[in-house]
Amino acid sequence: MASVHESLYFNPMMTNGVVQANIFGIKDWVTPYKIAVLALLYEMATTKPMALLDRRRLNKLILPLQQGSDLTFEQFLKTVEECCPLMVDAVKRRLFLMADRELQDMEHFFAILPSAFSDSEAFKTSVVGLFMRQMLLAYNKLSFSQVYKLYRSLQQYSQRGGRALSQDQRQRDHSAVTTEDMELTSNEDTSADPMEKDELDTGPLHQSDLRSTRGPLSQKQAEYFLARQAYLLKNDENKAMKPAKLQDELNNILKFNPDFAEAHYLSYLNSMRVQDIYISTHSLLHYFDRLILSGGEGKSSGDEGYGRSLRYAVLNLATLHCRFGHYQQADLALQEAIRIAQEANDHVCLQHCLSWLYTLEQMKGSDSVVLTEDSVKMAAHFCLPYLASLGIQSLVQQGALHGMSANKLLDALRGTDIMHWKQSLSELIDISLAQTASIWRMYGKSTMARQQAQLLLNMNSLEPVNFGVQQNNTEPFAIALCHLAELHAEQGLYGAVSDIIKHLKQQFPPHTQHAKLWMLSDLKIQFEKAMNDGRYHLAEPYVTAISALNTTEGLYRKAQLLKALNQTSEASKILQRVQNLSEKSKNTEMIIRVMLATAELHWDSSGFATALPLLLQALALARQHNLQSLESETILHLAFTQLMLGIPEQALALVQDVLECVLAHGSVLDKARALLLTARCQATLAVSNMNIKKSEEVYYLQARLHHSLGNIQERNKSALLFRLLNQELPPATNMAVPQL
Known about the structure:
This protein has 34 helices and two strands. The protein is mainly alpha-helical. InterPro entries: Apc5 (IPR037679), Apc5_dom (IPR026000), Apc5_N (IPR048968), TPR-like_helical_dom_sf (IPR011990).
C-alpha cells in the first residue's frame, strides 16, 4: 500500500521551491568565472548575426550560469559549446585577450562593458542587468592590489582551461596565486562589521574547483544551490547530489557561515537519506537553534517569531524519532509539541500534531481509527484540505486492512480525488492512484490494478516543472512500477520484468530512500522464478536478502524452500513463527498464506483429512476480508483435498466455481494448476463411470443368460441391478433397456 504520510514532514525552508534565507551575510564579489560570464553576455550583445535557436538556448543558459556555483573554465566552455559552438570561440578570444596582455586590458573590458547595453531596457530592469551592475560595483570597490590579484587569478583560470604555456610561466603564475594573500572578498565597505571584514579579508579567493579547499559561496549562489537541492530531494532524488558530495558542499557553506539555518535543514534532509540518526538530529537541532536566534525579535507565542519555530522544532523532532522507530521518544516529543501549540492557540500546528499522533499509533500497531476520524473532522473544520485528505487516505488504508468492501473504499477515494483536482494537489492525486492500485491488487483484481498503475505512470504533473524535474521519482511512482513488475512476473513475462526493474534502478538508485521497494520486489520475483524452475540452490541466497529487507517475508520464503526440500519439521517451526509475527502485526494476507502452507505440510505428513479445518478457517478469513485471490487459492486447495479423499464430484464443483476468476485475474501458474485440477477431477469421474458401465454390461448379460436357462428369479434379480445402475449413469451413456 502507498505510504500516505510521506508528505507530512514539515519543511519550513521551502516556499514554492524558494529557500527563505535572510541571515546570509556574504555579498557578491568578482571572480574569474564571473568575468567569463560577463564576457559571454558582452559577446551575446555585440554579436548581431546569430541564429534564433542558438540565442534562445543561450538565453535559457544565462540564469543558471549566474546563479549557480562557479565552474571551471573547461566546464564553462563545454556548457556554452552545447548551446552555441560559435560563441565559444568569441568568449575564449575575449578572455585570452585579457589574460595574455596587461592589466589595463581587463580594466578596459570593465570600462566598455556598460556601453554594450546602454540602449537596452533589459540592462535596467532584468536579472541579467542587475547581475552586471552588481559585478561592476564590486569591481569598482576593489583596491589596486585586489585588482591585480584578480588579474593574476584570471590568468591562472584561463591556463587551467587547456592553453599551452611555458613551464616558467606556469611556475610564476602558480607562485603568484599561492603566495599572495587573496583579499578579493573584501570590498572596503566601511559600514561592515570589523570582525566580518577581517574574516573576509583573510579568506581565500573563491575559485570553486580550482583548489581542493573551496571558498565561500555568495548569498545568491547559496540560495540557488539550497533551493535546487531541496526541490530535487523532494521530487527527484536521483537528480540530486549524492549524499556524501552534498554533505561536503553543505559543510563548505557552514564553514564560512555556521549560522546559515537553511543549510542545517538541508543537511538534516540529506542525513535522512542514509539513515544517519546522529547527523540528522544534530542538524535539525542546529537549524531551529539558528532560526530561533535569528527571529528573536518576534512575538514569543504568536504566528511569527521564535515561538512558532519552537513548536515546529519539537514536531520535527517527533517525526525524526518516528522514522527511526523510537516510538517512546516520538510520543514524548509529540506531547510537548501539542502542549506548546495549545498554549499558543496554533490550530494548524495542532492538526499536524494530531496527524502524526494517529500515524504513530499505526506504527505501533494500535487501532487509530478514532484518532484519524477526529483529525479529518478538525482539518475540515479549519479548512485544511491537505491534512483532511491525508486522513481520509489513511482511513481507506486501514479499512482495506480490516476487510471493508472495495466499493466503499473506492467511493471514499473518489470523493477526495474531486477535492485534489479542484485544489491541484498533484502529490495527493499520485498517492490516491497508487493506493487504488494496491487495493485492487490486494483484493485479487490484477487487471484493475494494472490499469490504475498505468494511469498513474501516464499522468502529467500539475506541479510547475523546475530544474528539469518531471515529478516521476516519488514513492507512488515506485509503488506503481513495482506492481507492474510483479504482475508481469505472474504472467511469465520476465523480459518485461527485466526492463521495468532496470528502469527502477535508474530512477531510484540504491542510495535513495525508495530503493527498498524495488529491491524487495526484485528479490521476490527472482525467488519465485527459481522455485518454479526447481533450482532450489539458487533460491537460497534470495531468502537471506529478502530477510534483510523484510523479516516476515524472508521467514515465509525460507519455510517455502524448506518444504520444497522435504524438511517438513523445520518448515513447520518457521511457519509458526511467521504466524505469530503476522498476528501481532495484523497481516491478514500473510496469516492466510501461512495456513495454506501448513495445510500443504499436512498433506505430506498426517493426511488430507487433517488439512480440512485449516483450509476452512483460511477460507472464512479470506471471505471476511474480501481477499478474492486468496479465497480462490484456498478453494483450489479444498478441491484438491476432496479429490484426494475420494470425492471428485464435490471437488469438480468447487473448481468450476472459481475457475472464471482464476482465469481472469490469476497468474499463469494459478491458471495451470486450476486447469490441471479440473482435468484430474474429470478424469477420476470418467474412470468411475467406466467401472459402473462395465458392471452394467455384466448384469445385462447375466439376465440374458438366466432368461435363456429359464431361471426366472435370478433373471429378475440381475435385471433389477442392471436397471439401478442404468439410472445412475448420465443420459448420454445410458444403455437402451433390452427386451427380454
